[in-house]
Amino acid sequence: MKDIYTAPFVEEMRKTTANMYRLGWDERNGGNVSLLLEESQVKDYVDGAVLREIPTGFSCPELDGKYFLVTGTGKYFKNVQYAPEVNLGLVRLTDGGETAQLLWGFTDGGKFTSEFPAHMMSHAARLKIDPQNHVVMHCHPANLLAMTYVHTLDERAFTRTLWQMCTECIVVFPDGVGVLPWMLCGTNTIGEATAGKMKEFRLVIWGMHGIYGAGKTMDETFGLIETVEKAAQIYMLTAHLPRVNTIRDDQMVELAEYFGVNYRKDFLN
Ligand code: 13P
Ligand code: ZN
């Protein structure tokens, strides 16, 4: 067996959660990340022995047999880099997704994030659209959160405003952002609602709570959220000031066409 502390997926999770913390996206235990792994990626690092079986509280047959590295509930992102074995867990789903078999981690008796339903249901939804999707990421970026208090939560209007805030936005997330109203977090209900939005969007905003991103790689997913947060920052820096200039809809079309991205045409005037 190779040392799991040297596994690329553990290293990537340590670095990513540290970056998210550094950017202020994950105060205290805020935020959670799950990374889908292939058996070939994990087999050299764990022997397959099941340390514990943890009920998930939902069923997700599409993910049966799949492996995930996931952050723990109540765990602080600032600590992941120093003690990955306590703050992370490697699980394999079984029983149609109703049970998570712990293969490594959560050494203090902990378990996966309370947002496991939203993560797993989102993975299942995104995999149907993009078989290369491997990452689901949730966090609480300050400007985005602030924007959900002062901007309508209509997803067309919210997307269009974000696209107007930075030239690159329509190129980075041409599919736009889905928006959910405030809902009770940590439940199967918000998980199902998030996964429903994930059929259309790689980014889903939870009003007055935070954001979910999904992507092929950790970098892609991080970059999506980073771009939305930057756009929200520009919005919050300017929303109270007279708007003298803007990126017009015809300019956004020009951008999307030049970069060859398939954008939500119904989100522009
Ligand atoms: P967990 O500590 O259970 O991951 O919850 C954090 C969070 O952001 C809830 O939405
Ligand atoms: Zn949260």
Description:
There is one protein chain. The chain is an alpha+beta fold and 269 residues long. 40% of the residues lie in helices and 17% in strands. It is built from 11 helices and 9 strands. The protein has helices at 8-22, 39-42, 77-80, 84-87, 116-129, 142-150, 155-165, 169-172, 188-198, 218-238, 249-258, and strands at residues 32-37, 52-55, 67-71, 88-94, 99-105, 135-139, 178-180, 203-206, 210-215. Strands 2-5-4-3-1-6-9-8-7 form a 9-stranded mixed β-sheet, with helices on both faces. The model has no long low-confidence stretch (mean pLDDT 98).
Summarize the structure.
The chain is 40% helix and 17% strand. It has helices spanning 8-22, 39-42, 77-80, 84-87, 116-129, 142-150, 155-165, 169-172, 188-198, 218-238, 249-258; strands at residues 32-37, 52-55, 67-71, 88-94, 99-105, 135-139, 178-180, 203-206, 210-215.
Sequence-ordered SSE layout with sheet pairings:
Elements: H1 8-22, E1 32-37, H2 39-42, E2 52-55, E3 67-71, H3 77-80, H4 84-87, E4 88-94, E5 99-105, H5 116-129, E6 135-139, H6 142-150, H7 155-165, H8 169-172, E7 178-180, H9 188-198, E8 203-206, E9 210-215, H10 218-238, H11 249-258
Parallel strand pairs: 7-8
Antiparallel strand pairs: 1-3, 1-6, 2-5, 3-4, 4-5, 6-9, 8-9
Helix pairs in contact: 5-9, 6-10, 7-10
1,3-dihydroxyacetonephosphate binds near residues 31, 74 and 113.
